[in-house]
Every structure is written in structure tokens, then in C-alpha cells.
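A note from the maintainers: we've had questions about how concatenated examples are separated. There is no special marker in the raw files; a new sequence line simply starts the next protein. For clarity in this README we add a label.
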Amino acid sequence: MTIDLPTDSDPRAGSFSRGTNQIGVRLYNERLILSLIRRLGNVPKAEIARLTGLSAQTVSVIMRQLEADGLVLKRDPQRGRVGQPSVPFQLDPDGAFALGLKIGRRSSDMVLLDFAGALRREIRLTHPYPAPDALLDFVRQSLPQLTGSLPAERRARIAGLGIATPFELWSWEQEVGAPAGVMDQWRGFDTAAAIAALSPWPVTLCNDATAACAAELILGQGARYGDFLYVFIGSFIGGGVVLDGSLYPGRTGNAGAIGSMPIATAPVAGAPPTQQLIRSASIWVLEKKLLAAGRDTSRLWRAPREWEDFGPPLEEWIEEVAASLALAIAAATAVLDFEAVIVDGAFPAAIGARVVERTQARLEQVDRQGLSPVTLVQGAVGAGARAIGAACLPLLARFGRDREVLLKNNGTVANGTPAAGRR
């Protein structure tokens, strides 16, 4: 199962300026080199050749083309002890752009991302619950605000619009406090088609937590690990899976749906022995605690990077999150031998650090005999990960490392090895 990527645009790395007569190996190598530069930042050609196994001549030819396409920039020469100074390359921030839309249960965001992963512009809409008509109005108004300041040549380099949305929005009517029947508007509503009618660029739709995982993979801690489970604590907790360095959306696009994982609850007469993780490790749970304490909860959604001190309800919530998330991590690593678990959320970085610290402490108390150790780390992208991840989807489609481009062309990998039997 792969993410439904745009099909009406040329997915090659240099497709803004070149024709379509390129063989699969060249395409794969371009994407491989762009992904390497994105991960390392500044890389000279000799280092690219060493890390990829490509010949120096092949790297030189590709780098000249990528530079001509406006996708990479030369940096100042770096002098070593002997020989000619090396010239590192970096991604050209203006080489490509992408738009991202996050549809949330309490807020929606639209962002403009450049090729280097910097957030150029961001627009937020808060709402008591999402509604299709209001969302379309938001998109209609935001698109010109986000792109209007770009010169025409740069607007032509917009790769697409990615959408990150929770699946089955209508299932959470009671939890979001919507009037009875209102959320049913989402049943049968074709979000991608409706937004595509407003967008001159290709549209990609993905589960919101999977999109956040894509952001962490491309721009955050994900490049350090080959396989990891990603956890995003938003209004409701969700997640994503990366295997062998690639985003794995699963058979139906719902891989990493960690919020639905059952966990044991404290014994209470008449209560079920388990509940889903979503009911103990989501910001929605903190909102309920704050409301019960008579606190204003609007800042949770208006400024997720700048929460105030919410006092005892916040302390209690962090402990509940840690206790339940530790059990879920142990269960997940028993199924897939993840190298790491990356935890992020729609909260300030300081809160994220405390959640990770307390979850690590709780995980050490879980009986994990027979399981390999797993590294637990805080995500680097932060509260905007879902919208940023949505914008990453078109960039992945156009420029990301993709083994399928080889299989669809000549069945070989970058170094000429036959691809038969490879996943």
C-alpha cells in the first residue's frame, strides 16, 4: 500500500525544467542525492560519491543538472589540508515549494513550505468542530494569501497541496462536542476532490498522524533511524510507521493507528478492563480535566506552542499519558522490532520533553522480557508537524527517494544490482 500520490504531474526531480526522456536509474539517483543533501545539509560531490557508491563522473553529471534545474546551490569552497578545496552543495530553498493543509478537530492550518523545509507562511483557523463548508471557505481564502507574495516563476515551482486529515471525522461527534448529527456532513464528503476543485496544483490526501510522521522523517529526528514508530499527541493521539527509511502507510493508509490500541485500565466495578489509548493519552483528555477545574481551554488550540501553566490538571495528565503510552510502546515493539519511538505533539517543546521523560520512566517499569531495547526520543518538528507533514507529501512525491521508479523502468537499483525480490 502506498500513499495516493498525484498522477497528473511529472514526479521527476527536475521536472520543472526538463522533458520526460529519463531512464529509471538516473531518476532514482537524482532523488537519492537530493535526499542525502536534505539529510546532511551541505555535502561536497566527493562525499556524495562515497556515501552513495556512485562514480565521481555520475555524481558530477547529476549535480550539474540539479544545479541547472535550480534545485541545489553551491556553497563557498572549503579548504582542506591538501588538494583542491571542496565545494559543498545544499538544497536551494527556492527550488520548489509545497502547500499543506491540516484538518483538525479543534483547528485547521494551511502552510507554505520551501524546498529546504522552512515554513514560509502559516494561517490558522480555530473552530469548535470542523465543518466541510467552513473548511472550503478557509482553503479558498488562504491559497492566495499563502502564494500571492511569490513571484510567478516561484509559483510555477509549487509541487502540490498535501492534506492531512483524521479519518472518519464523524466518529468523534460526542468527544468534540458537536451538535447531534452535524459531523455526519463528513460522511461521503470527498475531501480531496472538493479541495482539488479549488487548487491549481495536484492534491495529496493522507491520515494526519501519518503526515506528521512524514515531517519527522524528512525534517526531524527520523533520518537517524531506519525503522521507527512515530507518536503524535494531538486532540487525539495517533501515529505513523517508518520501515527501512520509508514511510509505511499500510494497507488502507492507517498504519500506526496507535490511538486505537487497547490498554489495561485500573480495576473499577462495572467498567471494562481495557480502553483505547486515545481515551487516556490525548489532549482532549486534558481539556476535560481543565474544564472540570474551571480553567479556560482556548489556549490549548489557539497557541499550541505557548501553553500557560495549567497546574495540577496538566501534571495529572502527563502522568496518565506516560503510564498508558509506555504500555502501548511495549506492545508495538513486540510486533515490530522498532529501533526507536519518536514522540511529538501539539504542545510546547518543554511539555514534550516531560512527556518523553515520564514515559521512559514508566517504560522501564513494564515487563519487557524477550524484547529488544528501544530508543525513546522527542520529536523535532513540534506542534505544526501535521500541517508541515502535509506539505512534505508533494515534495516526497516529486523529489523523495523512491525505489518504485526503478521497478517501473528497468528493474535495477542504483548500483546496477537486479531488483528482483526486493520489496
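[label: protein 2]
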Amino acid sequence: MNKNIINKFLVKAKINTYASGGEEKEKNFSDGSKGFEFRENDFLYIDKYFGSDCFIGKEIFFNKNQAIWGMNYYGRIVSKIIPEKEIYQFLQKALKKVTKNKPFRGPDILEINDLKYINMSKGNIDNFLGEEKILYMGKIVFLLDYHGGLIK
């Protein structure tokens, strides 16, 4: 499958799931996880996770019921100097800025008032890994590690 098509769909799916509604739009899955689904024609994106302050999850992109791309992630709140809700609202803003060049998480950097989002990644859609951080007044309050790539 054309990688530009994969990148374009991933951006659209990510913007229309957690980044657009967070936990208010999520569904409960039969395995006890929570998450999101986004469909368009033969494409399906599923993002499932377990936990809240510390959580683990996976995102899978299917084309005609065949998994073609995936990502695993593990995130955690590391400081409670600001409310958890503020951290996750800021994370949603960052994730809405996902790009076609790196359709994994958010932009490299986003700063709004006292909050700063930093996303460092290596690789491309084929095979990648990364780490994101949220800082409040220079102190780390959230960390997330992720990795993934094409499934053949």
C-alpha cells in the first residue's frame, strides 16, 4: 500500500479520535480496555488502552480487515503539580497537530503558556520509536514512550 495513503489516513484518524474528544468519545471494549475507532471506506483505525495515570495501549490500522500498521505506547503522569485533567487537555491539543511526515504522536514542540510538549522520534512509517514529554514551568509532568511500524 502507498505510504502517503497510510500517513494521510493516520493523521485523519488520530485527529478524529482521542485528540478531538478524549475520554468522552471513547468506547469500552470486551477485553476491558477503552479506546476509539475510526472508519473510512475499507480502512479501520483502532486505538485501545488500559489504565489512566499509568497506561499502556496500541493503535492498529487495518485495510480490508488486514493489519498493515501498528504502534504500542506506555504513558504516565510523573508529577501532580498540576491537575491530571490539564495535562490530558494539553496533550489533546498537541496530538491534534500530528503531521503526515511523522503520523505517530504530536509535533516536535508545542508551547502554550506554562506548558511545553516535546516529541522526539527516530525513523519513519516503516519503523519508528519515540518519546514525548509534557513540562509545566520546566518540570516534567508526563512521559510517554512509543514504537511501531508497518506490519507485513
